[in-house]
Batch of 4 targets.
Target 1
Amino acid sequence: MILGSFHDAKVAPQSPMARLGTALPRLSPRRPFLAQLEEAAAAQPSSAELRDLRTTITSRPGESAVLLRRLFYRWLDLPEPVAPARPRLVPVPSAVPVGSTSPVQRPVYVSAAPDGGRITVRRYAAPLQRRTRERHLAGTHLVADIDDPDATWPRSADVLLLPLGRPSRTEATAIRDAVAARYPGCGLIAIEEPDDACVVLLRDGGRLHARWHGGRPSWASAAIAASVVHDHAVPMAGAPGPVRLQVTIGPDSGTGLLAIAPL
């Protein structure tokens, strides 16, 4: 993290915000922007000062939704809903020129099963499912974005998605170790790449690259590629060269050719 500006006079001395302003570097217009970001990214994860500062911000990390909802309903003198208090994704306004209506990919239950010489992928919006009761979810795995504001999804994910550009391939091993320690239930990590491709990091240390060939259909994505790898990773990891699979999401959706190769 780098501060573009910071008004020291507007924060209380010795407060967590004042300490943060002292600890973080300021963006310099006289140096390359990328170099400053890389320096901060390398130094800050191991910073004892920032680690100590995080402990002063809250004594109940990850519980704000529960505590705030409880407080608001008490003020309103109303009974609190029985459903768990969880943060929800807020759609991006339609005026914003982006390709998705959400800043992160929504969690989904996915199966990628052989079907007449092709792999048929089926996806179900996770927040709408009752996994212990729904028969159609048998054999599915959970795919979640690491930046999902509801932390229960990435913590429970079998496939964890990392957005485009974070990290680079050269940082993949360190990222795998850090993410695996934080999310021990994760089966694989998928790092998004351009053109809906992805680098897949397996728990056993293997690395695969999944890429769509030819005119990929509109539904093709890094997340779907990662799901195919998740359900078919064992034979692919031992293959001497690329494995090419025909992938579809339904009878009228068209077919995409996905090539998966060891890295």
Target 2
Amino acid sequence: MRGPVAELRAFLDAALLRPVGGQQPDPPSARTRRRVVAAVTLVVGSAALAWALRIRPGDPRFYTASLGLAAAWGVGAVASGPLHFGRGHTRSGGPAARPVAQSLALGTLLLAAFLAAALVVARIPMLRAPVDALLDHARFGSLPVVLAITVLNGVVEELYFRGALYAALPSHAVAVTTLLYALTTVGSGIPLLVLAAAVLGLVTALQRRATGGVLGPIITHVTWSTGMLLLLPPALELTR
């Protein structure tokens, strides 16, 4: 029987490092269209995200901007061409299956790591203040609406970044999508948000490479983002 460290290592290997066989790249005839649509979507989506993140908490325009952002990522992803759900390795070593439980576990591990790091960051006023300002959208707005928008944007971001954009790149897709995903958040002016996007982007890009589809990254992203929205504020309160 393997110990906990060996179990974790085996899990990460299956979830992030060992690609499932049988993945099919886009045919050459579809690549040009996907690349053009992905490039246009990246420009529009980045501008919309920068605008949404700079709207003051409590301003109703935040909801409109967030829905517009979701539309940009979602429409661009669908218009780029077919997207695949992908499959993941099973614990039993049997045929590959949809990576649902695997992705829920990965998202939970990522969430736990971020919450632990937040308890350290919260003690540094210069780093905590921008995070508090970002969370004010949930504090001063409608939490159910913000939660719904968080889920929606988590889904469409993965459809675009780990779906359309990933498939459009001829090489180094993990590194390039991770970098571009982080760069889209620079306009927020929140360094920790950029760092979080880089970490999340790397994990979901590796997951996309391993599974060959967007289902795993979507589940991981939504698990992480909704958990951060609901659990980060009370975690930060513990340090006041």
Target 3
Amino acid sequence: MQKNLIVVGASRGIGLAVAQFYQAKGDNVFSVSRTPSTIGRWIEADMSNNEGIQKVLHETSDHTIDALLYMGGVWEEHAFTENYDFETSPYSETHNIININQIAPIELVKGLLKSLKKSRNPRAVFIGATSGLDISSTAEVAYSASKFGLRGAVHALRIGCNNQGIGFTTINPGLVGTDEVLKDIKSSPQSGLIPIPIDDVVRAVDFVLQSSKDTEIGDITLTQKFTV
């Protein structure tokens, strides 16, 4: 059965891979991004502000939504490299990271609850990060704060909406082999790092969507390998 899916961050990286995967399966994809996406129906929207969030809600309001797949995310300049500098990170960068990684997912869920509840097996899946886990060893302050906060929000949604039939899942990968990440880690002192293949993240998302509505899937953690 064809599903209606909202994929945030669908113009590149994980979001693009996820959008392509579901379009190939024949699902109806709403691709949300600032830059153009050729997948499904593109909604040009900036998740750093309420105007962008409300645009997504308005343009999908007439549809039953089977899944919100929040695959977007941003981080500090030079994040995950030895050039990252917390002291020189401007307020605007911190503000933007928290808005996109934490506030926008919360507000989208709030606005989509009615549309999600119409689905037979509604799901909301978010890309977190191992930076948002207690085992994290990353130094990026705003990014880590946003991912910790996202996990907390999803946990609270799981509790608060447990009688509404919506499944809430956070997928927490380490560094994923997107073009942006490969560029960022090129100068990293961790030369033996092997990024997680994007296809593995897509498979994790699809595992959640293919699971029975009777199964609650909380956090899924994916970590990368290191060569010796």
Target 4
Amino acid sequence: MHAVILAGGKGVRLRPYTTALPKPLVPIGDQHAILEIVMRQLAASGFTTCTLAIGHLGHIIRAYVGDGSQWGLRVGYAVEDSPLGTMGPLLTMMERLPDHFLVMNGDVLTDLDYGAVLRQHAESGAPLTIATYSRKVSIDFGVLTTTDGMVTGFREKPSLDYSVSMGVYGLSRDTLSRYTPGLPLGFDDLVLDLLKADTPPAAYDFDGYWLDIGRPDDYDRANAEFAGNRSLLLKDA
């Protein structure tokens, strides 16, 4: 079982925390880096090998993770010299990837069973499996529906429900074979291409704990909640 962790971003939205540290290494609970939690979770889920796609401040990640043996993993690296999007780095390491593998952002904090995502993907035959989470968005305004200049409907401060991507995917190597290594490829590009080709991705619905540490508010929340969630996130501790 192999995982690719995307850890090459600059973490612009999380500044100033990411001024000196890459986002996957910002501390949670003053004791663990996000990436350490992820690596321990992967090992506990049955993963044995991992590739870290690194770029910005990648030397710090390489120094911290090493060969991964401290978590029982064999870790390799792929260096992103220029921005390639979410899926673009995978095209540069195709010869190292198995038929089916997990792809995830390096800043995800969740108790999702990564092994279950990959197993469902491999069994489904889908080209891509997206771990999804339900989010409710509250609108702080009265929402109008208009037709030909006339108001035809009204809702006072409605709440809208969405299924959002968790930044965790099951992927098959064949799905990427049509794309050119070295060129950018975004997650959005891949999904839209699959939908256009009538080969839709599968969904892995999840309703447990999930935070995408992309903004200072989310990071502060993760730290505030970590003491209560430590046993949930680090079951092997």
